[in-house]
Amino acid sequence: MPVLNRFLSSEFGRRLKVSEELLPTSVWTLSTYQQRTFTLELPELIKLVKLLWKSKHNLQGPKRRGVFENEDALSNIPGDGRVRGPTGVLSERRGSFPFIDFRLLNTTAHSGEIGTKKKVKRLLSFQRYFHASRLLRGIIPQTSLHLLDEDYLGQAAHMLSKVGTWNFDIFLFDRLTNGNSLVTLLCHLFNSHGLIHHFQLDMVKLYRFLVMVQEDYHSQNPYHNAVHAADVTQAMHCYLKEPKLSRYLTPLDIFLGLMAAAAHDVDHPGVNQPFLIKTKHHLASLYQNVSVLENHHWRSTVGMLRESGLLSHLPTETTQDIEQQLGSLILATDISRQNEFLGHFKSHLDSNDLSLEDAEHRHFMLQIALKCADICNPCRVWEMSKQWSERVCEEFYRQGDLESKFDLEVSPLCNQQIDTIPGIQIGFMTYIVEPLFEEWSRFTDNSALSEVMMSHLRKNKARWRHLRHKQHHREEDSSSLSLNEGVEGGGP
Ligand SMILES: [Zn+2]
Protein backbone atom coordinates (compact mmCIF):
# COMPACT_ATOMS: atom_id res chain seq x y z
CA MET A 1 0.00 0.00 0.00
CA PRO A 2 2.43 2.68 -1.19
CA VAL A 3 0.00 5.54 -0.61
CA LEU A 4 -0.35 4.66 3.02
CA ASN A 5 3.36 4.17 3.46
CA ARG A 6 3.82 7.80 2.59
CA PHE A 7 1.74 8.73 5.61
CA LEU A 8 4.36 7.26 7.84
CA SER A 9 6.84 9.83 6.65
CA SER A 10 9.50 10.37 9.25
CA GLU A 11 9.27 14.14 8.81
CA PHE A 12 5.66 14.25 9.91
CA GLY A 13 6.26 11.92 12.82
CA ARG A 14 9.15 14.04 14.11
CA ARG A 15 7.17 17.24 13.89
CA LEU A 16 4.32 15.81 15.91
CA LYS A 17 6.68 14.54 18.55
CA VAL A 18 8.29 17.92 19.04
CA SER A 19 4.97 19.69 19.39
CA GLU A 20 3.76 17.14 21.90
CA GLU A 21 6.83 17.59 24.03
CA LEU A 22 6.20 21.31 24.09
CA LEU A 23 2.69 20.96 25.42
CA PRO A 24 2.13 22.30 28.91
CA THR A 25 2.09 19.58 31.52
CA SER A 26 -1.35 20.59 32.78
CA VAL A 27 -2.75 19.39 29.50
CA TRP A 28 -0.32 16.74 28.50
CA THR A 29 -0.76 14.84 31.74
CA LEU A 30 -4.10 13.76 30.27
CA SER A 31 -2.34 10.74 28.88
CA THR A 32 -1.08 9.83 32.32
CA TYR A 33 -4.67 9.65 33.54
CA GLN A 34 -5.08 6.71 31.28
CA GLN A 35 -3.08 4.56 33.59
CA ARG A 36 -5.99 4.77 36.02
CA THR A 37 -9.71 4.44 35.80
CA PHE A 38 -11.36 7.79 35.22
CA THR A 39 -14.59 9.22 34.00
CA LEU A 40 -14.43 12.45 32.10
CA GLU A 41 -17.72 14.30 31.87
CA LEU A 42 -18.36 16.10 28.61
CA PRO A 43 -18.00 19.70 29.83
CA GLU A 44 -14.65 18.82 31.42
CA LEU A 45 -13.63 16.97 28.30
CA ILE A 46 -14.48 19.92 26.09
CA LYS A 47 -12.71 22.36 28.38
CA LEU A 48 -9.58 20.20 28.32
CA VAL A 49 -9.64 19.86 24.57
CA LYS A 50 -10.14 23.60 24.18
CA LEU A 51 -7.32 24.30 26.60
CA LEU A 52 -5.13 21.94 24.67
CA TRP A 53 -5.92 23.57 21.39
CA LYS A 54 -5.35 27.06 22.74
CA SER A 55 -2.01 26.09 24.24
CA LYS A 56 -0.92 24.45 20.99
CA HIS A 57 -2.12 27.42 19.03
CA ASN A 58 -0.14 29.85 21.19
CA LEU A 59 2.99 27.78 20.81
CA GLN A 60 2.81 28.17 17.06
CA GLY A 61 3.29 31.93 17.32
CA PRO A 62 1.60 34.56 15.18
CA LYS A 63 -0.85 33.32 12.58
CA ARG A 64 1.10 34.66 9.63
CA ARG A 65 4.14 32.70 10.69
CA GLY A 66 2.16 29.51 10.38
CA VAL A 67 1.15 30.36 6.84
CA PHE A 68 4.68 31.16 5.77
CA GLU A 69 5.86 27.91 7.26
CA ASN A 70 3.33 26.16 5.08
CA GLU A 71 4.68 27.84 2.03
CA ASP A 72 8.19 26.79 2.94
CA ALA A 73 7.05 23.25 3.48
CA LEU A 74 5.17 23.28 0.22
CA SER A 75 8.08 24.57 -1.78
CA ASN A 76 9.74 21.20 -1.29
CA ILE A 77 6.73 19.28 -2.53
CA PRO A 78 6.40 18.74 -6.28
CA GLY A 79 3.67 21.08 -7.39
CA ASP A 80 0.29 20.30 -8.79
CA GLY A 81 -0.96 23.43 -10.48
CA ARG A 82 -4.64 22.80 -9.97
CA VAL A 83 -4.51 22.86 -6.20
CA ARG A 84 -2.43 25.96 -5.60
CA GLY A 85 -3.80 29.41 -5.09
CA PRO A 86 -1.92 32.53 -6.18
CA THR A 87 0.11 32.55 -2.96
CA GLY A 88 1.19 28.95 -3.38
CA VAL A 89 -0.96 27.79 -0.47
CA LEU A 90 -3.16 24.87 -1.28
CA SER A 91 -6.68 26.09 -1.75
CA GLU A 92 -8.12 22.59 -1.96
CA ARG A 93 -6.42 19.79 -0.08
CA ARG A 94 -8.77 16.91 -0.76
CA GLY A 95 -7.52 13.55 -1.91
CA SER A 96 -10.59 12.88 -3.99
CA PHE A 97 -11.52 16.41 -5.01
CA PRO A 98 -13.33 15.65 -8.21
CA PHE A 99 -11.03 17.56 -10.49
CA ILE A 100 -12.20 16.16 -13.76
CA ASP A 101 -9.65 16.11 -16.51
CA PHE A 102 -12.08 16.07 -19.42
CA ARG A 103 -9.19 15.80 -21.87
CA LEU A 104 -8.87 12.19 -20.73
CA LEU A 105 -12.33 11.52 -22.11
CA ASN A 106 -11.00 12.04 -25.62
CA THR A 107 -8.06 9.71 -25.15
CA THR A 108 -8.45 6.99 -27.77
CA ALA A 109 -7.14 3.44 -27.70
CA HIS A 110 -4.51 4.46 -30.30
CA SER A 111 -2.89 6.88 -27.92
CA GLY A 112 -2.51 4.17 -25.29
CA GLU A 113 0.98 5.11 -24.23
CA ILE A 114 0.10 8.73 -23.68
CA GLY A 115 -3.03 7.68 -21.81
CA THR A 116 -1.05 5.34 -19.58
CA LYS A 117 1.52 8.01 -18.83
CA LYS A 118 -1.25 10.36 -17.90
CA LYS A 119 -2.83 7.77 -15.65
CA VAL A 120 0.46 7.09 -13.91
CA LYS A 121 1.02 10.80 -13.52
CA ARG A 122 -2.42 11.16 -12.00
CA LEU A 123 -1.79 8.29 -9.59
CA LEU A 124 1.48 9.85 -8.52
CA SER A 125 -0.26 13.15 -8.24
CA PHE A 126 -2.80 11.52 -5.95
CA GLN A 127 -0.06 10.29 -3.66
CA ARG A 128 1.65 13.66 -3.64
CA TYR A 129 -1.64 15.36 -3.11
CA PHE A 130 -2.46 13.20 -0.17
CA HIS A 131 0.97 13.51 1.30
CA ALA A 132 0.80 17.29 1.04
CA SER A 133 -2.60 17.28 2.67
CA ARG A 134 -1.33 15.25 5.62
CA LEU A 135 1.82 17.29 5.92
CA LEU A 136 -0.15 20.47 6.19
CA ARG A 137 -2.40 19.41 8.99
CA GLY A 138 -1.17 20.60 12.31
CA ILE A 139 0.69 23.51 10.77
CA ILE A 140 -2.28 25.51 9.54
CA PRO A 141 -4.14 27.25 12.34
CA GLN A 142 -7.58 25.72 11.96
CA THR A 143 -10.21 28.20 13.01
CA SER A 144 -12.96 25.58 13.00
CA LEU A 145 -11.29 23.82 15.88
CA HIS A 146 -13.08 25.98 18.40
CA LEU A 147 -15.15 23.20 19.88
CA LEU A 148 -18.07 24.75 21.65
CA ASP A 149 -19.21 28.31 22.14
CA GLU A 150 -19.65 28.93 25.85
CA ASP A 151 -23.25 30.02 25.28
CA TYR A 152 -24.11 26.78 23.58
CA LEU A 153 -22.11 24.47 25.80
CA GLY A 154 -24.99 23.77 28.16
CA GLN A 155 -27.47 23.11 25.36
CA ALA A 156 -25.10 20.80 23.48
CA ALA A 157 -24.25 18.92 26.67
CA HIS A 158 -27.96 18.59 27.39
CA MET A 159 -28.52 17.17 23.92
CA LEU A 160 -25.73 14.67 24.47
CA SER A 161 -27.47 13.41 27.58
CA LYS A 162 -30.18 12.22 25.17
CA VAL A 163 -27.89 10.97 22.42
CA GLY A 164 -29.49 7.54 22.47
CA THR A 165 -32.96 8.79 21.52
CA TRP A 166 -34.18 8.40 17.95
CA ASN A 167 -35.45 11.97 17.56
CA PHE A 168 -31.99 13.41 18.26
CA ASP A 169 -31.71 16.50 16.03
CA ILE A 170 -28.26 16.30 14.48
CA PHE A 171 -28.75 19.55 12.54
CA LEU A 172 -29.38 21.47 15.76
CA PHE A 173 -26.50 19.68 17.46
CA ASP A 174 -24.19 20.68 14.61
CA ARG A 175 -25.21 24.33 15.00
CA LEU A 176 -24.74 24.22 18.78
CA THR A 177 -21.28 22.73 18.38
CA ASN A 178 -20.19 25.31 15.84
CA GLY A 179 -20.02 22.73 13.04
CA ASN A 180 -18.10 20.24 15.18
CA SER A 181 -20.87 17.68 15.61
CA LEU A 182 -18.74 14.73 14.52
CA VAL A 183 -15.76 15.43 16.80
CA THR A 184 -17.95 16.30 19.80
CA LEU A 185 -20.26 13.33 19.34
CA LEU A 186 -17.42 10.84 18.95
CA CYS A 187 -15.50 12.21 21.96
CA HIS A 188 -18.65 11.79 24.01
CA LEU A 189 -19.50 8.30 22.73
CA PHE A 190 -15.94 7.01 23.10
CA ASN A 191 -15.97 8.26 26.66
CA SER A 192 -19.45 7.05 27.58
CA HIS A 193 -18.82 3.58 26.11
CA GLY A 194 -15.62 3.36 28.17
CA LEU A 195 -13.49 2.94 25.03
CA ILE A 196 -10.89 5.54 26.03
CA HIS A 197 -10.20 3.63 29.19
CA HIS A 198 -10.48 0.15 27.69
CA PHE A 199 -8.08 0.82 24.81
CA GLN A 200 -5.94 3.21 26.89
CA LEU A 201 -6.42 5.84 24.21
CA ASP A 202 -4.44 9.05 24.33
CA MET A 203 -6.99 11.91 24.36
CA VAL A 204 -4.75 14.17 22.30
CA LYS A 205 -4.27 11.54 19.61
CA LEU A 206 -7.98 10.71 19.64
CA TYR A 207 -8.88 14.34 19.23
CA ARG A 208 -6.32 14.78 16.48
CA PHE A 209 -7.70 11.76 14.62
CA LEU A 210 -11.32 12.88 14.94
CA VAL A 211 -10.49 16.38 13.69
CA MET A 212 -8.72 14.84 10.70
CA VAL A 213 -11.78 12.74 9.89
CA GLN A 214 -14.19 15.64 10.31
CA GLU A 215 -12.07 17.97 8.21
CA ASP A 216 -11.73 15.42 5.43
CA TYR A 217 -15.47 15.52 4.84
CA HIS A 218 -16.40 18.13 2.25
CA SER A 219 -18.63 20.72 3.84
CA GLN A 220 -19.69 21.95 0.40
CA ASN A 221 -21.41 18.63 -0.33
CA PRO A 222 -25.12 19.04 0.41
CA TYR A 223 -25.38 15.47 1.66
CA HIS A 224 -22.10 13.59 1.99
CA ASN A 225 -20.59 15.85 4.63
CA ALA A 226 -19.55 15.53 8.29
CA VAL A 227 -23.13 16.04 9.51
CA HIS A 228 -24.20 12.92 7.59
CA ALA A 229 -21.31 11.06 9.25
CA ALA A 230 -22.43 12.32 12.67
CA ASP A 231 -26.01 11.32 11.90
CA VAL A 232 -24.95 7.79 10.89
CA THR A 233 -22.80 7.54 14.04
CA GLN A 234 -25.72 8.57 16.24
CA ALA A 235 -27.95 5.99 14.53
CA MET A 236 -25.23 3.36 14.94
CA HIS A 237 -25.06 4.17 18.65
CA CYS A 238 -28.83 3.55 18.89
CA TYR A 239 -28.51 0.22 17.05
CA LEU A 240 -25.60 -0.91 19.22
CA LYS A 241 -27.89 -0.45 22.21
CA GLU A 242 -30.53 -2.82 20.80
CA PRO A 243 -30.97 -5.52 23.48
CA LYS A 244 -30.68 -8.34 20.91
CA LEU A 245 -27.22 -7.08 20.01
CA SER A 246 -25.80 -5.11 22.93
CA ARG A 247 -25.37 -7.95 25.40
CA TYR A 248 -22.97 -9.74 23.05
CA LEU A 249 -20.90 -6.76 21.94
CA THR A 250 -17.30 -6.45 23.07
CA PRO A 251 -15.54 -3.08 23.46
CA LEU A 252 -13.76 -3.84 20.17
CA ASP A 253 -17.11 -4.30 18.38
CA ILE A 254 -18.38 -0.97 19.72
CA PHE A 255 -15.10 0.73 18.81
CA LEU A 256 -15.28 -0.65 15.26
CA GLY A 257 -18.97 0.19 14.84
CA LEU A 258 -18.55 3.81 15.90
CA MET A 259 -15.30 4.32 14.00
CA ALA A 260 -16.69 2.84 10.80
CA ALA A 261 -19.83 4.96 11.07
CA ALA A 262 -17.83 8.15 11.63
CA ALA A 263 -15.43 7.53 8.74
CA HIS A 264 -17.59 5.58 6.28
CA ASP A 265 -17.90 8.42 3.74
CA VAL A 266 -14.75 10.39 4.53
CA ASP A 267 -13.46 12.56 1.67
CA HIS A 268 -16.55 11.82 -0.42
CA PRO A 269 -16.31 13.89 -3.61
CA GLY A 270 -20.09 14.45 -3.92
CA VAL A 271 -20.42 12.36 -7.09
CA ASN A 272 -21.03 8.63 -7.48
CA GLN A 273 -18.85 5.79 -8.74
CA PRO A 274 -20.23 5.69 -12.32
CA PHE A 275 -19.34 9.38 -12.58
CA LEU A 276 -15.77 8.74 -11.45
CA ILE A 277 -15.46 5.87 -13.92
CA LYS A 278 -16.81 7.71 -16.92
CA THR A 279 -14.67 10.77 -16.22
CA LYS A 280 -11.59 8.55 -15.77
CA HIS A 281 -10.99 9.86 -12.26
CA HIS A 282 -7.72 8.71 -10.70
CA LEU A 283 -9.58 6.98 -7.83
CA ALA A 284 -11.45 4.78 -10.33
CA SER A 285 -8.11 3.70 -11.82
CA LEU A 286 -6.57 3.22 -8.39
CA TYR A 287 -9.35 0.87 -7.23
CA GLN A 288 -10.01 -0.65 -10.65
CA ASN A 289 -13.64 0.46 -10.76
CA VAL A 290 -14.61 -1.74 -7.79
CA SER A 291 -16.19 -0.10 -4.71
CA VAL A 292 -14.14 2.93 -5.66
CA LEU A 293 -15.54 5.35 -3.11
CA GLU A 294 -15.78 2.84 -0.27
CA ASN A 295 -12.20 1.70 -0.83
CA HIS A 296 -11.12 5.31 -0.75
CA HIS A 297 -13.04 5.99 2.48
CA TRP A 298 -11.42 2.97 4.09
CA ARG A 299 -7.85 3.64 2.93
CA SER A 300 -8.15 7.27 3.96
CA THR A 301 -9.32 6.19 7.41
CA VAL A 302 -6.39 3.80 7.79
CA GLY A 303 -4.03 6.57 6.71
CA MET A 304 -5.43 8.93 9.33
CA LEU A 305 -5.34 6.25 12.02
CA ARG A 306 -1.66 5.61 11.34
CA GLU A 307 -0.81 9.27 11.04
CA SER A 308 -2.50 10.18 14.31
CA GLY A 309 -0.79 7.28 16.09
CA LEU A 310 -4.08 6.62 17.88
CA LEU A 311 -3.48 2.87 18.00
CA SER A 312 0.31 2.90 17.93
CA HIS A 313 0.51 1.56 21.50
CA LEU A 314 -1.45 -1.59 20.57
CA PRO A 315 0.17 -4.81 19.26
CA THR A 316 0.62 -4.89 15.49
CA GLU A 317 -1.76 -7.85 15.10
CA THR A 318 -4.49 -5.88 16.86
CA THR A 319 -4.07 -2.77 14.72
CA GLN A 320 -3.97 -4.90 11.57
CA ASP A 321 -7.14 -6.64 12.64
CA ILE A 322 -8.82 -3.29 13.36
CA GLU A 323 -7.80 -1.91 9.96
CA GLN A 324 -9.12 -4.99 8.17
CA GLN A 325 -12.41 -5.04 10.05
CA LEU A 326 -12.91 -1.32 9.43
CA GLY A 327 -12.43 -2.05 5.73
CA SER A 328 -14.94 -4.86 5.74
CA LEU A 329 -17.49 -2.63 7.51
CA ILE A 330 -17.00 0.41 5.29
CA LEU A 331 -17.03 -1.69 2.09
CA ALA A 332 -20.39 -3.13 3.17
CA THR A 333 -21.93 0.34 2.68
CA ASP A 334 -21.52 -0.02 -1.10
CA ILE A 335 -25.16 0.18 -2.14
CA SER A 336 -24.50 -1.99 -5.19
CA ARG A 337 -23.96 -4.89 -2.77
CA GLN A 338 -27.34 -4.36 -1.10
CA ASN A 339 -28.97 -7.56 -2.38
CA GLU A 340 -25.96 -9.67 -1.44
CA PHE A 341 -26.15 -8.53 2.20
CA LEU A 342 -29.94 -8.60 2.32
CA GLY A 343 -29.94 -12.19 1.00
CA HIS A 344 -27.46 -13.34 3.67
CA PHE A 345 -29.36 -11.52 6.38
CA LYS A 346 -32.68 -13.09 5.33
CA SER A 347 -31.26 -16.59 5.16
CA HIS A 348 -29.70 -16.21 8.63
CA LEU A 349 -33.04 -15.07 10.06
CA ASP A 350 -34.98 -17.77 8.19
CA SER A 351 -32.76 -20.51 9.53
CA ASN A 352 -32.37 -18.81 12.91
CA ASP A 353 -28.66 -19.59 12.93
CA LEU A 354 -27.14 -16.30 14.06
CA SER A 355 -25.05 -16.98 17.11
CA LEU A 356 -23.69 -13.70 18.35
CA GLU A 357 -21.13 -15.32 20.64
CA ASP A 358 -19.36 -15.97 17.36
CA ALA A 359 -17.13 -13.03 16.36
CA GLU A 360 -17.85 -13.57 12.65
CA HIS A 361 -21.58 -13.37 13.19
CA ARG A 362 -21.18 -10.24 15.32
CA HIS A 363 -19.11 -8.69 12.55
CA PHE A 364 -21.85 -9.50 10.04
CA MET A 365 -24.41 -7.81 12.29
CA LEU A 366 -22.16 -4.76 12.59
CA GLN A 367 -22.11 -4.61 8.79
CA ILE A 368 -25.90 -4.78 8.70
CA ALA A 369 -26.24 -2.20 11.49
CA LEU A 370 -23.94 0.18 9.63
CA LYS A 371 -25.89 -0.33 6.40
CA CYS A 372 -29.12 0.44 8.28
CA ALA A 373 -27.58 3.52 9.90
CA ASP A 374 -26.36 4.74 6.51
CA ILE A 375 -29.81 4.66 4.91
CA CYS A 376 -31.98 5.39 7.95
CA ASN A 377 -33.00 8.91 6.86
CA PRO A 378 -36.51 7.81 5.76
CA CYS A 379 -37.01 6.26 9.22
CA ARG A 380 -36.44 9.58 11.01
CA VAL A 381 -39.13 12.05 12.01
CA TRP A 382 -40.51 13.89 8.94
CA GLU A 383 -38.82 17.27 9.54
CA MET A 384 -35.37 15.70 9.59
CA SER A 385 -36.11 13.05 6.99
CA LYS A 386 -37.34 15.67 4.52
CA GLN A 387 -34.21 17.75 5.01
CA TRP A 388 -31.97 14.78 4.26
CA SER A 389 -34.05 13.94 1.18
CA GLU A 390 -33.69 17.44 -0.20
CA ARG A 391 -29.96 17.39 0.49
CA VAL A 392 -29.29 14.08 -1.25
CA CYS A 393 -31.35 15.09 -4.28
CA GLU A 394 -29.51 18.41 -4.47
CA GLU A 395 -26.25 16.45 -4.61
CA PHE A 396 -27.65 14.23 -7.39
CA TYR A 397 -28.83 17.26 -9.36
CA ARG A 398 -25.43 18.92 -9.05
CA GLN A 399 -23.87 15.81 -10.57
CA GLY A 400 -26.49 15.89 -13.35
CA ASP A 401 -25.72 19.55 -14.07
CA LEU A 402 -22.01 18.74 -14.27
CA GLU A 403 -22.72 15.84 -16.62
CA SER A 404 -24.89 17.87 -18.97
CA LYS A 405 -22.38 20.74 -18.90
CA PHE A 406 -19.73 18.38 -20.25
CA ASP A 407 -22.02 16.54 -22.69
CA LEU A 408 -21.99 13.34 -20.68
CA GLU A 409 -25.02 11.16 -20.30
CA VAL A 410 -26.95 12.33 -17.24
CA SER A 411 -26.97 9.57 -14.62
CA PRO A 412 -30.20 8.04 -13.33
CA LEU A 413 -31.86 10.16 -10.60
CA CYS A 414 -29.69 13.15 -11.49
CA ASN A 415 -31.98 14.95 -13.93
CA GLN A 416 -33.86 17.65 -12.06
CA GLN A 417 -36.43 17.99 -14.88
CA ILE A 418 -37.41 14.32 -14.76
CA ASP A 419 -36.41 12.96 -11.35
CA THR A 420 -38.50 14.66 -8.69
CA ILE A 421 -37.65 14.50 -5.00
CA PRO A 422 -40.88 12.61 -4.09
CA GLY A 423 -40.29 10.17 -6.95
CA ILE A 424 -36.69 9.49 -5.93
CA GLN A 425 -37.64 9.08 -2.28
CA ILE A 426 -40.56 6.71 -2.91
CA GLY A 427 -38.34 4.51 -5.09
CA PHE A 428 -35.53 4.55 -2.51
CA MET A 429 -37.90 3.64 0.30
CA THR A 430 -39.65 0.89 -1.63
CA TYR A 431 -36.66 -0.91 -3.12
CA ILE A 432 -33.81 -0.22 -0.67
CA VAL A 433 -34.97 0.96 2.76
CA GLU A 434 -38.12 -1.07 3.44
CA PRO A 435 -36.67 -4.50 2.55
CA LEU A 436 -33.66 -3.94 4.82
CA PHE A 437 -35.58 -2.48 7.76
CA GLU A 438 -38.22 -5.19 7.62
CA GLU A 439 -35.44 -7.72 8.22
CA TRP A 440 -33.82 -5.51 10.86
CA SER A 441 -37.18 -5.39 12.70
CA ARG A 442 -37.35 -9.16 12.50
CA PHE A 443 -33.84 -9.42 13.95
CA THR A 444 -34.69 -7.08 16.87
CA ASP A 445 -37.98 -8.93 17.53
CA ASN A 446 -39.82 -5.72 16.69
CA SER A 447 -38.05 -3.71 19.35
CA ALA A 448 -39.46 -0.35 20.47
CA LEU A 449 -36.95 1.45 18.25
CA SER A 450 -37.82 -0.72 15.24
CA GLU A 451 -41.51 0.03 15.74
CA VAL A 452 -40.79 3.77 15.82
CA MET A 453 -38.60 3.58 12.71
CA MET A 454 -41.13 1.54 10.72
CA SER A 455 -43.88 3.92 11.75
CA HIS A 456 -41.87 6.95 10.52
CA LEU A 457 -41.03 5.08 7.34
CA ARG A 458 -44.71 4.42 6.55
CA LYS A 459 -45.78 7.97 7.40
CA ASN A 460 -42.95 9.56 5.46
CA LYS A 461 -43.68 7.45 2.40
CA ALA A 462 -47.35 8.47 2.58
CA ARG A 463 -46.32 12.13 2.77
CA TRP A 464 -44.05 11.82 -0.27
CA ARG A 465 -46.88 10.09 -2.14
CA HIS A 466 -49.20 12.92 -1.22
CA LEU A 467 -46.63 15.49 -2.38
CA ARG A 468 -46.09 13.61 -5.64
CA HIS A 469 -49.84 13.54 -6.19
CA LYS A 470 -50.10 17.29 -5.58
CA GLN A 471 -47.16 17.89 -7.90
CA HIS A 472 -48.86 15.89 -10.70
CA HIS A 473 -52.04 17.88 -10.23
CA ARG A 474 -50.15 21.16 -10.36
CA GLU A 475 -48.41 20.06 -13.55
CA GLU A 476 -51.71 18.97 -15.10
CA ASP A 477 -53.34 22.25 -14.08
CA SER A 478 -50.50 24.32 -15.44
CA SER A 479 -50.38 22.36 -18.71
CA SER A 480 -54.16 22.70 -19.22
CA LEU A 481 -53.84 26.39 -18.33
CA SER A 482 -51.11 26.94 -20.87
CA LEU A 483 -53.12 24.92 -23.40
CA ASN A 484 -56.12 27.16 -22.81
CA GLU A 485 -53.94 30.24 -23.03
CA GLY A 486 -52.53 28.84 -26.25
CA VAL A 487 -56.05 28.27 -27.62
CA GLU A 488 -57.17 31.70 -26.51
CA GLY A 489 -54.02 33.33 -27.71
CA GLY A 490 -54.17 31.46 -30.97
CA GLY A 491 -57.83 32.38 -31.53
CA PRO A 492 -59.05 34.83 -34.11
ZN1 LIG B 1 -23.10 7.43 3.98
UniProtKB/TrEMBL annotation:
Q: Which domain of life is it from?
A: Eukaryota
Specify where the region named Disordered lies, as residue ranges: 468-492
Task: Cite the cofactor comment.
Answer: Binds 2 divalent metal cations per subunit. Site 1 may preferentially bind zinc ions, while site 2 has a preference for magnesium and/or manganese ions.
Q: Which cofactor does it need?
A: a divalent metal cation
Gene3D superfamilies listed in its UniProt record: 3'5'-cyclic nucleotide phosphodiesterase, catalytic domain
So where does Zn(2+) 1 get bound?
228, 264-265, 374
One protein family per Pfam: PDEase_I
* GO biological process terms, semicolon-separated: negative regulation of cAMP/PKA signal transduction; signal transduction
Instruction: Identify the EC number(s).
Output: 3.1.4.-
Question: What are the UniProt keywords, alphabetically?
Answer: cAMP, Hydrolase, Metal-binding
Cross-referenced InterPro entries: HD/PDEase_dom, PDEase, PDEase_catalytic_dom, PDEase_catalytic_dom_sf, PDEase_CS
Q: Tell me what this protein is called.
A: Phosphodiesterase
User: What's the source species for this entry?
Assistant: Lepisosteus oculatus
The beginning of the lineage is: Eukaryota, Metazoa, Chordata, Craniata, Vertebrata
